[in-house]
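Complex 290.
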Amino acid sequence: MPIVALESTVISHGLPFPDNEQAALRLEDLVRTEGAEPRTIGLIAGSVIVGLNEGQIHRLATAKEVKKVSLRDLPVVAANGMDGATTVAATMHLAHRAGIRVFATGGIGGVHRSVGTNQTWDVSTDLEALARYPMVVVCAGAKAILDLVATREVLETRGVTVVGYQTDEMPAFYSITSGLSVDVRCDTPEEVAMLARSKDELGLSQALLVTVPPPAQVAIPASEIEPAIEVAITEAKSNSLRSAEVTPFLLKRLGKITGGRSLATNISLLEKNARVAAQIAVAMATTTDR
Ligand code: PSU
Ligand code: MN
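Predicted structure with pseudouridine-5'-monophosphate bound:
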């Protein structure tokens, strides 16, 4: 059966209420429309749920005390019976463990920008997970708040094959272009399925990272979003934010600074990615049968 995993950090920490709950349910509907089964992943009272129900999605969209859960947090949240929203890294771990091969998100985490001449060493565990779990991960590239050049380099170092889906260039989350290369272009779900199959047959542990440009009607050129990103990063710095707080803070501030424009783009690209992931899952289910 074609299945698409979906993450929950974007619900609890990436989008504001009520957009987060609506988007989460809509992503599931879009996956079903394309003929696949959605499995939104998270933790409820310490239990891992692969396929949250509507009530559980509501809980993660509204509850105050939902921990952002990356790999290192998984045992802590599980052992302490807490609610947790899983990042790309933690979702990949749990989805892979459940035998799911395709996963859709918005933008992956990556290398955060240096502050002045200071390398912060804030590098998302998402990059580690992409090197470790052999899944197909569908995204709009890495989040634009990051150092995209450095993020691209780490993907290369860790042996992650980056696919441009109907593009020759890696998208930059809100923007269609980034100036960054992809390793290969695929124009159809079937091409991605074939590539995923060769990767698996070669015994590679890495994910196939399928990068999908945001829809043209809502994409924001880098020149327009960059000033807002710089303002948000300066604010994060003066608030001495660290670690897991940084990304949610920046996304929230960008939404405010752009008057909701970045939020609308974020939701649209999540929707597009969910559809493409479902189409790939369907293609993978049919090609393996042959
Ligand atoms: N994509 C979005 N919004 C998000 C995220 C992805 O459109 O909020 C989340 C993912 O869960 C990703 C996390 O794993 O942001 C990255 O967090 P960090 O930089 O702290 O690793
Ligand atoms: Mn981090």
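The beta strands are 3-6, 37-44, 47-50, 66-69, 83-86, 102-104, 136-139, 161-165, 184-186, 208-211.
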